[in-house]
Design goal:
With about 500 residues, this protein is mainly alpha-helical. The chain has two domains: about 260 residues, no CATH class; about 170 residues, no CATH class. It is built from 20 helices and no strands. Helix 4 packs antiparallel against helix 6. It is globular, with a radius of gyration of 23 Å.
Length: about 500
């Protein structure tokens, strides 16, 4: 089991490097955005990206998840490649059809969203961006199945470099504003697709399995609705804030989400990329359930530690990334609350896995859509009272309720005895340590930095000495420390990891 945990950690770390690069580019661009876009324009950009994410979920049917599932269950290489061809062909054909149907109505969408038909170019770009990003995500899912994590981040880095350079050119030189940002995204996705097509060709055979496609769609369409409801659940509040408070508040909230999103992007998404293919391959093994249980505990440890760090230093982060526009500084207040949401989303991911492993996915959209509707209703109730904080509190309440539903019903299909006492105690310790920072809010800047660093350091000490780790786990940590503590050995250790 420890070897599988190590393998998960290895691929998660590699994906994290790629995601870290992505986030670093985002952080480099953030001061550019805040200095060249007003808070309201940043809110408009955020709503555009939110709409793009919603369309991406609908356009893809979550078919790549079905491809991963069928690939993992097959032992025949030709059959696996036929699954890839079948699902990719379906996706490509559907995306072409949707562009034919939707592109002529871009002006109508512009009037609906922005009350100005001049914004039609946004939607021309949007539909093409979603198309190429969907195709890229499918091929990258295949790369994940094959555990080619280095190739994954290589492609990601190329796309990021293109996006970064074009953003700077379009925003600073051509002064294109929001249009320049979304145009840079489109060109970056097209570049990635051109690089990925030769790789895809190696893993397809031209056999279209119509009957299996029907089964895959029966499996993936509920997941699509689950993902769509999940997106509305997690980012639909931006639309509520826009309706009740305006674009400026959306911009402030979005900056807070961008900073706390480092936790989601660098830790949770990297973990998901590495873990899901492995979970499908080993869920029938004897020690699989204990493995899943330990994985949740480790995941919450890392998420809580990261969330604590982001929350403690949020004021400094915001002032660095929006140094030229103090209108954004209010965002730091909300980073800690959004980090709590991310931690509970980590729990949700592991509880939801029980439905995927048992192929009982039809219940998921019912649960998630119910909670999404509840969350939006709660937003309309709390935002007028608490403002932006009301929206985040709504998300916390909703995700806790969703976790309870997933835990109770998921155990009927695939029962895992998670270490829930440890999990919630770890979260409580993180919240308690963060609350200590309120004791010295108005002290000297550098003294505050020092005290916050001490608080952050206390967390791993408590985990190490507080009985959260078993003796064998402490031993493995000690061995890992001895192996990696010297930077001189990093190059040699990384080479060894690649060979495994």
């Amino acid at each position: 089991m420890l070897n599988k945990i190590r393998n998960t950690a290895k691929h998660s770390a590699i994906y994290s490097l790629g995601n870290l690069s992505t986030k670093l580019v985002g952080l480099v661009l953030l001061p550019l955005f805040t200095s060249h876009l007003s808070v309201a324009e940043y809110g408009i950009l955020t709503l555009f990206e939110t709409t793009s994410l919603l369309l991406l979920t609908v356009f893809t049917f979550n078919i790549s998840n079905a491809m991963i599932r069928w690939w993992a269950d097959s032992e025949d290489e030709k059959e696996k490649k036929s699954y890839v061809f079948t699902t990719f062909s379906f996706l490509l054909g559907f995306l072409i059809l949707l562009n034919i149907l939707l592109q002529p109505f871009s002006g109508n969408f512009a009037l609906l969203f922005y009350k100005n038909s001049d914004f039609r170019i946004y939607f021309h770009i949007l539909f093409l961006t979603v198309t190429f990003e969907a195709l890229n995500r499918f091929i990258l899912s295949l790369i994940r199945v094959l555990e080619k994590s280095v190739l994954f981040i290589t492609i990601s880095l190329v796309k990021l470099t293109v996006s970064l350079l074009l953003n700077i050119y379009f925003i600073v030189v051509l002064k294109l504003g929001v249009e320049g940002i979304i145009l840079a995204q489109l060109i970056a996705h097209i570049s990635g697709f051109i690089l990925l097509v030769p790789f895809l060709r190696k893993y397809i055979v031209f056999v279209f399995q119509k009957s299996e496609l029907r089964k895959m769609l029966n499996y993936s369409i509920p997941l699509m609705f689950t993902a769509l409801s999940g997106i509305l659940f997690s980012i639909g509040d931006r639309y509520v804030i826009k309706i009740l408070m305006g674009d400026e508040e959306v911009g402030i909230y979005s900056l807070a989400a961008k900073i706390s999103g480092f936790l989601n992007f660098f830790v949770l998404q990297s973990f998901q990329m590495a873990f899901l293919p492995m979970a499908y391959k080993m869920y029938k093994e004897k020690n699989a359930k204990r493995f899943f249980s330990k994985i949740l505990t480790y995941l919450i440890m890392v998420l809580t530690f990261g969330g604590l760090g982001l929350s403690l230093f949020a004021p400094e982060f915001v002032k660095i990334f929006a140094s030229e526009n103090s209108d954004y500084w209010e965002a730091s207040v909300y980073v800690s609350l959004i980090s709590v949401v991310t931690i509970f989303f980590g729990i949700r991911y592991m509880f939801e896995l029980n439905f995927h492993l048992s192929r009982k996915t039809k219940l998921l959209p019912i649960f998630v859509s119910t909670i999404a509707i509840f969350n939006i209703a709660l937003n309309f109730l709390l935002v007028p009272i608490l403002g932006i904080a009301g929206s985040i509190v709504s998300s916390i309440i909703s995700v806790v309720l969703l976790n309870i539903m997933f835990y109770v019903y998921g155990r009927r299909y695939y029962k895992v005895n998670y270490e829930l006492t440890k999990v919630f105690l770890i979260i409580f310790i993180g919240i308690f340590l963060f609350s200590l920072s309120f004791l010295f809010m108005d002290i000297n800047f550098w003294l505050g930095i020092g005290l916050k660093t001490i608080i952050l350091t206390i967390f791993p000490i408590v985990i190490l000495l507080g009985g959260f780790l078993e003796p064998i786990e402490k031993e493995r940590l000690s061995q890992a420390w001895q192996k990696w503590k010297s930077p001189k050995k990093w190059k040699e250790n990384i080479k060894k990891l690649k060979k495994k």
